[in-house]
């Protein structure tokens, strides 16, 4: 019998219902399209969900990361420990302030920052001299600078090792920024992702756990940081400033009321949305276990709850990923490489002199990772079709 290709399966689909559509339409019945009650409702939903004292909605996760960098006092020439295995926004937020990202390779199981290397890098950078030089990029960090902060990323919805990272930060007097843009609803040893650093950031692109179309949100328990970030997101208007007064150099990082209404409606369904994504991930894990040459994601004990953002498998070393992706696409199954290492992006190689081989674990994961179609809207039949097609193409 000839192979019958399944109907094309979307790479991702937002999970929207009539409640979300009505929430957005209701805003259009009011004169408040910006800086209104929906923003406050959305932020309150996050304070309840995470237990944080402060929540600030912004127009993207990247904007949220930039605000955190500013609130932590990171400036020109400062060094920040971070990961090369992430979406570029986590590094770009540092470059906006002319800081120097100091990369540390990642754990081969989780893809999160290797805490032993992070501890050694922090110690060496504080010591200076030849010890520090081994961690710095070849170019772009010639001027002396202070180690100022640590920016960790919760890769693919699994939190980094924050007990270790907080210990490193405390020993060296560093602020700790948690990029949880992929990890809404995850837990580290029973504690919510986003609450594990001095500030945390979420993002709401359509493939995320909840969506506002575009948008992001920062949480923190720090009153000073919250007050500063609220001013900076609104063109630098500090408390007490009138409409055309600006205490700080700020940004237009506000989230609009339509997006906030969508986000508040999604947060009312957050448990349902996370459960749906977990079910799809469970279907994948069961079926992929029977396919040789494929590694499914591995969860570690400190992850007491994972929050599935994407579903990234790893192929065997030496597999022709590009050819496999082409075969899958031809049969109606779209896939994507995940992630392309940040240090090998053209602008990073040109600016900092990075080369292939600098971060071998990151490069290995980047070369073997393949994101399968994934969303909470997928049916068991669709997961079956993806896995059958994958096995056939392999």
TrEMBL record:
Similarity field: Belongs to the DegT/DnrJ/EryC1 family.
Protein name in UniProt: Polysaccharide biosynthesis protein
Taxonomic source organism: Levilinea saccharolytica
Modified residues (N6-(pyridoxal phosphate)lysine): 208
Active site: 208 (proton acceptor)
Gene Ontology terms: biological process: polysaccharide biosynthetic process
Gene3D superfamilies named among the record's database cross-references: Aspartate Aminotransferase, domain 1, Type I PLP-dependent aspartate aminotransferase-like (Major domain)
A Pfam family assignment: DegT_DnrJ_EryC1
